[in-house]
Amino acid sequence: MPRNLDITALRSFVAVADAGGVTRAAGFLNLTQSAVSMQLKRLEETLGVPLLDRSGRTIALTTTGEQLMSEARRMIELNDRMIARMTDPAHEGEIILGVPHDIVYPAVPEVLRQFHAEFPRMRVNLVSTNTRDLKERFGRGEVQVILTTEDRLTEEGETLSERPLIWAGAIGGTVWRERPLRLGFCSNCLFRGQAQSALDKAGIPWEMAVSSERDISVDAMISADLAINAVLDGTLSPYTAAVPHGGALPDLGTMKINMYCSAVARTSAIDMLTDMLRHAFRMASGRDYHLPGRASAA
Fold first, then answer.
1. Cα–Cα distance, 248 to 175 (Å, whole number)
2. pLDDT number for residue 277
3. Whose CA, among 30, 113, 200, 238, lies 20 to 30 Å from 50?
4. Count of CA atoms in the C-beta half-sphere (13 A) of 175
5. Residue 253 φ/ψ region, left for φ over 0, alpha for ψ in the -120 to 50 degree band, beta for the rest
6. C-alpha span between 263 and 260 (Å, rounded)
């Protein structure tokens, strides 16, 4: 009597292999860890061979598991393609996108606007917090796509842009001339230490005018010309401007804008969203966005 492979079990198997562990795969699949483990056990029992080597600190594929992997991917792809053809072609679901507060503007709102036009039934929930927190959430499978601001790129990601850090203050502001220089940063901002170190090396005294857990408090102080801070070039808010210091303040170096996308959660909608983000952040201009969509790609 022929035996049938369970697509759900195959999907869990591929997810565990891609994610490098059951816990992370469970987060991406929105299942419990025990449910994923049970599906893996059922798949191994159906085939009568071990697929995963659990003897080390991390899960690895056995030789048989490696042989199954490529076929499993093709079976899942065929299953998903048939389901898509036989049901409503409109995309539905939810994508959780994580973006640090300081790079939301100006690109992300326009990306979200056009993505909604392309996929009106797909909900995008935006999580805005610091890079460290976003990477921890991504590691737990709680978000499918994140942008980060970092001085280096870690595995699984890609660099969308590398930009100089610039001093930012109120439009027409003069507080940058005062000494000690008044700074305003969130307590967990990656740029804070870099700015303080640069000032120390330049021999410029400084003091923290505001150190808050909330970005809105920092924004209020900066726009009121009571402090300055550092931002990536091209990400100024509508209420701030680059400080025209003419070399009176030190150079701050550059920082990368990186993107990480879950290999487990990949869909055509997520591919479109990441294409839009990639295009927006790689553009030389920070103002004019003509994002790729299904219509323009046709």
1. 13
2. 97
3. 30
4. 26
5. left
6. 9
| Rounded-to-integer distance, Cα 215 and Cα 82, Å | 46
Residues in the chain with pLDDT values less than 50: 284-298
Tell me which amino acid residue 13 is: F
- Six token digits for residue 161: 């842009």
Please give the model's pTM, rounded to 2 decimal places.
0.66
